[in-house]
Every structure is written in structure tokens, then in C-alpha cells.
Design goal:
5% of the residues lie in helices and 55% in strands. It has 1 helix and 9 strands, in the order H-E-E-E-E-E-E-E-E-E. The strands form 2 sheets. It has a 6-stranded antiparallel beta sheet, with no helix packed on it. Strands 2-1-9 form a 3-stranded antiparallel beta sheet, with no helix packed on it. The longest helix has 5 residues. The protein is globular. The two termini are 16 Å apart. The N terminus is likely disordered. Keywords: Metal-binding, Zinc. Belongs to the yippee family.
Length: 109
């Protein structure tokens, strides 16, 4: 059983829909109530196997932010974004969190 556990089997994770590159663990899922250009999106505490793009200022539904788009490190597909800075004090909890678009990810076991 040790080999199976170390491979992460049995623990749900989210992968890139295009190339199956693991991106986030189910244990790091914070919320499923975010919106992105493709529709529903999920917020995670951490993301892995992503490349973080340049910072940019963005006006989103809940205020002004500095964000960086995130890309799959294997296939380069844009997956969502990470919050760098929230200018509204009530939104500071988002800083350092990752948004992955539901249309771009698969839940795997």
C-alpha cells in the first residue's frame, strides 16, 4: 500500500484537461463559486505544475486586483490566474490563491 499512497492514488486531484498534468489537490480546494471567462471556476490554496505569467492590473467582479495568468507547465494551456494583490481590504484573503477554470480541468482519482 505504501507505493500506492506515495503515488497519490486514491486522493482526488485536478489535472489539465488537455494533457492530464496534475495541477491541484482536492485537499487544497477552497471554493467552487468563482466565475471565469469560460464559466465556473474553482479557488485553490496551492497549484502545482503551473507557469505564472506577468503581473497585470485587472478590474474583476469583486474589485481591483493585480493578477498573473497561470499556464499548464506541460502543454502551455491557460488555466486561470493567481491573485497577487487585492486593493480592497475585504478581498485580501484571495492574495496568493489560485483560480482554475472548471472547463480546463479534470477531477481524477
Amino acid at each position: 500500500m505504501g507505493e500506492r499512497e506515495s503515488a497519490g492514488l486514491g486522493h482526488p486531484l485536478y489535472s489539465c484537461r488537455r494533457c492530464r498534468n496534475p495541477l491541484a489537490l482536492n485537499a487544497d480546494l477552497i471554493s467552487k463559486s468563482y466565475k471565469a471567462k469560460s464559466g465556473q471556476a474553482y479557488m485553490f490554496r496551492h497549484a502545482m505544475n503551473v507557469v505564472i505569467g506577468a503581473k497585470e492590473e485587472r478590474q474583476l467582479m469583486t474589485g481591483q486586483y493585480t493578477i498573473s495568468h497561470i499556464f499548464c507547465s506541460r502543454c502551455g494551456d491557460e488555466m486561470g490566474w493567481t491573485y497577487v494583490t487585492a486593493f480592497d481590504a475585504t478581498q485580501k484573503f484571495k492574495e496568493g490563491k489560485y483560480i482554475l477554470e472548471k472547463a480546463k480541468i479534470l477531477k481524477e482519482y
